[in-house]
Structure formats: C-alpha cells, structure tokens
Design goal:
- It is built from no helices and ten strands.
- It is mainly beta.
- The protein has a single domain, classed as 10 Kd Chaperonin, Protein Cpn10, Chain O.
C-alpha cells in the first residue's frame, strides 16, 4: 500500500520564531520530552533510568484533529501521562519531542 507524500505547514512556537517542519496526523499528539535528570539517593547512589517510574509525563505542544471514532480531548499546554513504550521519539531542530497516539494517553493533568 502506498501513501501519498503529504507536506503541510506545522508551526511550533520556539523562542518567538516559527519552525516549519511538517504536519501532525489526526489522533496524534506531539509532546515535549521532559528533561533528563539524574536521581541520587541521600547517600549519593545514582538511580538508573530503567528503575524509575514506568510512566512518562509530557507537555502537549501540538495536537492533531479528532478521529471519526475518537474525539480529541487533549489540548495544547496540557500535561499528559503515558507508557514509555507508547511513543516515537522525534527530533525537531535539535529539540527532543515524543509523538503519541491519543489512545495511549493514560491521564490528563
């Protein structure tokens, strides 16, 4: 099955300038990846990423349209919780983002 090439303007506001990159599809959410912070115990032992929380919290930057069967209930600026295995990492202008399906959102803050 072949899909037609789609290129439409997607604007993300970053440092007061617009970045042209592409288009987000219906039912998808683009989240800002949280900064990686090393966790240490009081005795100075570094806790590795693999032992931390099994969920991720991301800030919603952009949302696609609603699907015919599923209404888009997330809006720009929301914080969302999702599984670490339910997203695709995307780098746009050296900034890390996560592309998540609407169905994979577990909680909206």
């Amino acid at each position: 099955m072949t899909f037609p090439k789609l290129f439409v303007l997607l604007c993300i506001l970053k440092n007061r300038k617009m970045i042209e990159t592409g288009r987000i599809l219906p039912g998808k959410i683009l989240c800002k990846e949280p900064p990686k912070v090393e966790k240490k115990t009081t005795s100075g032992i570094i806790i590795p990423e693999t032992t931390k929380s099994p969920t991720i919290i991301g800030d919603v930057v952009l949302t696609g349209e609603s699907l015919p069967t599923l209404k888009m209930v997330v809006s720009d600026g929301d914080k969302v919780l999702f599984s670490p295995h339910s997203f695709v990492r995307v780098v746009i202008d050296d900034e890390p983002y996560m592309l998540v399906n609407l169905q994979d959102i577990l909680f909206i803050f």
